[in-house]
Each structure stands twice: as C-alpha cells, then as structure tokens.
Amino acid sequence: MNHVDSPLERIDRMVLQLFALVGESVSGATDALLSGDREAAKALADRDEVVDVIYHDIEQLTLQQLTVAGITSPSDLRFLVTVIRMLPDLERNGDLAEHVARRAARGLGGELSARSRGLVERMGEVAIHMWRATTDAYAERMPMAASVVDTLDDEMDDLHVSLTMEVVAGTMPLPVAVELAMVARFYERFGDHAVNLAKRVAVLAPSTGQVL
C-alpha cells in the first residue's frame, strides 16, 4: 500500500524543497555573476516565482492546520508555529538570490576588480556553508546549527566590510561600485536571515525544551 503524506509531512517536505531551491539559487547566482553567464542568471532570476508559489502553498496549508484541524499535540503545534516563523526568512533569502542573479544578468561580474571578485566568491561560499548547515539542522532536527551559523555570519560580516572598503576605494566606475555595494549588502542580509532560521530550527530539536 502506498503511503499518503499527512498534512504535516507534506509541509515538512515542501519546506525542505524551499530550502533546496533557495540554496541552488544563491549558489547559481554567485556562479553566474563571476562567470558572466547571463542566460543562467536570467533563468535563476525567473525561478524566484517558483519559490514564491511554494512559500504561499506552505503558508496556506500551515495556517489551515493551525486554525481548522484542531491539532493539540505540543510537538505538532511547535512544528507548525516554527514553520510560520521560518517562512519570511526563507522567502526573503530567495529574493536576495534573485537580486544577485539580476545583476549578474546585466553583466556586472565582468566589471569587477580582481579583489572584489575574490571577496564576492568567498561571500558566496560562506553563504552556501551557512545554508547547508541550516538545511541539515532542519532536516535532522539538530539544535547545534545556530552556533555554527553564527560563526560563519561573523566571517560574512567581515567580508561585507572588506568589500565595502573595496567599493569606496575608487578602483571601479561609480555605477559598478553602486551595484557592487548592493550585492555586498544582499550577501550580508542573506547571512542574517540564515542566522534567524538556524535559531528557529533549534526549537524543533526534541531535547531543547524551548518555549514557542
């Protein structure tokens, strides 16, 4: 007999799908920016609509379970409330990946200084490490991701400062510098949202005993 997902299992599966899509988007956007692959960048930017659809589907199903189904299990309630709290950070990071992709589609990567390219590359790597740690923590219900992600976020903040200094050094034309400053901010904000998510995920660990 084929197993039919319960509503909570379906929500869980969709959240993991959202994590995967956002992770692929930020990785792909960084690669497209640095390689100058405008077509790939355009495809990634357009895919943000898929993220938005899944986001709204999860939100609708989760709210339905909270308001209609009458779930009383503390663990189920904790899961549903945590998902509602996680969704804005998930959706926002999808938007941030889209913003990077749109600048890649306009050819920004080909106008960067050598130092700024290296910094952007490292920011992309750190973003992916943060995202993988958070995704794995959600999938396995592990509480320790928050400290790992916090440490990586410190590096992201340092990279943001370094890239901002490169922007103001005057090594690139002003329009390029302005766009690059925005890209630096996108990665920095991505890190902040990942930190928020890692803290939310910690609530789902069975032994945390944290309050909703």
Strands, helices and their partners?
Layout: H1 7-35, H2 38-46, H3 48-67, H4 74-105, H5 114-140, H6 145-168, H7 174-202
Task: Write a structural description.
By secondary structure, the chain is mainly alpha-helical. It has a single domain, classed as Methane Monooxygenase Hydroxylase, Chain G, domain 1. Helix content is 80%, strand content 0%. The protein contains 7 helices and no strands. Helix 1 runs antiparallel to helix 2, helix 1 packs antiparallel against helix 5 and helix 5 runs antiparallel to helix 6. The C terminus is likely disordered.
Secondary structural class: mainly alpha
Here the CATH topology equals Methane Monooxygenase Hydroxylase, Chain G, domain 1
Assign the CATH architecture.
Answer: Up-down Bundle
Poorly predicted runs are: 208-212
Helix content: over 70%
Distance separating the two termini: 36 Å
What does the radius of gyration come to? 19 Å
Given the structure, what is the number of helices? Answer: 7
Strand content: under 5%
- Strands, total number: 0
The whole-number mean of residue pLDDT values reads 91
Q: Can you identify the CATH superfamily?
A: Phosphate transport system protein phou homolog 2, domain 2
Q: What is the makeup of the main sheet?
A: none
Domains (count): 1
**CATH class type:** Mainly Alpha
Judging from the principal axes of the Cα atoms, what is the shape?
elongated
Q: What's the multimeric state?
A: single chain
The SSE string, one letter per element, is: HHHHHHH
